């Protein structure tokens, strides 16, 4: 009797196992099949950027919907990057489901300045442009459109400080009669210059006059108004950085190349 009951139980369990296996095989599975990436179209591939035309239209981008193989909410991001950087640090515009984005001259110039805060006005520069499409809340890798591009000569949108600093002194080629202007670094808010110097002296001065000048009374790289001349002990080419925003005093560094 036990043998018959045991065989019956085993038979029932085997039947259930087959049924469960069959259910697993017959289960409907959702398979993600990649369709088309968005196709990007630009109304222009060059733009003229000037402060006077900041409100004028520069370029409009449109793109086709991305297809992920099933109905899903898709969000689009328009990306700009310097040519050759592989979009390592892009300027991005999150647009949700929208399939177009327009830029005025001022807005496009802001994109350029956002990619390079020390941009030089009037230098023709090419940016690469693409659209990223991603499923909202999904764990699927985004897809990207083929690259487009825009070529323009942007202008520096930031205003330099009112006081323009320079190097002057017997250590420079111009001596005490002609100063050598420094360049303002908008990214780091400092003045800098690379300059050949002889073994002599120099000072910092602003606005091509002596009303505002800085020297180093304590030879400690801290600067004082109307301070002592800075001594160069060895001739060579030097990188000089002036930070007039440092507190409690302006500071400088001088490094021989």
UniProtKB/TrEMBL annotation:
UniProt signal peptide: 1-19
Protein's UniProt keywords contain RNA-binding: no
Gene3D superfamilies attached here?
2.60.40.3620
Recite the UniProt keywords alphabetically.
Signal
Which residues belong to any copy of the SusE outer membrane protein domain?
A: 25-132
| Organism superkingdom | Bacteria
**Which PROSITE patterns would you find in this protein's record?**
PROKAR_LIPOPROTEIN (PS51257)
- Transport keyword on record: no
Q: What is this protein called?
A: SusE outer membrane protein domain-containing protein
What organism, scientifically named, is this protein from? Hymenobacter fastidiosus
